[in-house]
Amino acid sequence: MNKIIVANWKMNPQSKKEAEVLFNSISKGIKNIKNSQIIICPPFPFLSVFGNNKSKKIFLGAQNVSIENEGSHTGEVSASMIFSMKGKYAIVGHSECRSSGETNKTVNTKILNLIRNKISPIVCVGEKDRDHDGNYLSFIEDQIRECLNGVSKTQIKNLIIAYEPVWAIGKNATREATKEEFIEMKIFIKKVISDLYDSKIAHSIPILYGGSVNSLNAKSFAIEGGADGLLVGRDSLNPKKFEAILNALK
Ligand code: 13P
User: Fold this and answer.
1) What is the best residue among 8, 167, 208, 235 to mutate for testing ligand 1's pocket, by most ligand atoms within 8 Å of CB?
2) Whole-prediction pTM value?
3) For 105-127, b where at least 16 C-beta lie within 10 A, e where not — what string?
4) CB-CB contact of 182 with 225 (8 Å)
């Protein structure tokens, strides 16, 4: 089955030239990859640079979107702008955005804006800490319920969920997640979706894993753990490491 591999470049690299080099190296490196759909999410300014890329394997995504549609909102980028730059996907609800004020309610507005503009939202959910009483499960349930408020059965078919436990993200991760932890969460997320919609929809929604993904653990999450794909931060900035992740899934 095809895996969805998302490269979240975050606020990297620092110049158009470096971004082109990175994009072209990834493009070359994935020539022989057959079983993955690759989505590259560069910073906004670089979306326009890659909009006309000829690769049939690489899709473009944004890392965020405005809650507004147009008008006097300095510094904001609308869903229709992303669409016009050939962005087919957009990450919303990333913990790094949530930590600077994004709420489930704003994520919900963003999801609805994106779907109206024919962009598939990649909705990040994830707890900050794991407690022994299982409170993290109700935290995730609330995130999903509130983020999907008003999203219809037809609309949800275009949506991807990414489980990214905050404690496993980035250089300051406290530890790596295990495939067992992902499996438990995948079952739980599907149950929440099934309660909200139905089991057919729950079955069809892709659930990705993100948080310190590398070539050594990619197989464990995406093959053994049954993730429908991976959301990769740091190792998507190094073409060799990114390629190694894709090769690990062959
Ligand atoms: P890292 O892969 O650098 O831990 O980042 C994960 C992430 O936040 C992807 O969205």
Assistant:
1) 8
2) 0.97
3) ebbbbbbbbbbebebbbbbbbbb
4) yes
Interhelix angle 16-29/239-248, nearest 10 degrees: 30
Q: Whose CA is closest to 53, among 83, 87, 82, 78?
A: 87
H helix intervals, the chain? 16-29, 44-50, 79-84, 95-98, 104-116, 135-147, 179-196, 199-204, 218-219, 239-248
Length of the chain in terms of residues written: 250
Nearest CA-CA partner of 231 in 244, 218, 250, 219: 218
Decide if 96 is catalytic: no
Of 61, 35, 46, 59, whose CA–CA distance to 13 is shortest?
Answer: 46
pLDDT at 50 > cutoff 70: yes
132 or 213: which leads in pLDDT: 213
CB atoms within 10 A of CB 190: 17
When pLDDT is averaged across residues 165-190 and rounded to a whole number, the result is 97
Residue to substitute in 96, 161, 234 for testing ligand 1 pocket (most ligand atoms within 8 angstroms of CB): 234
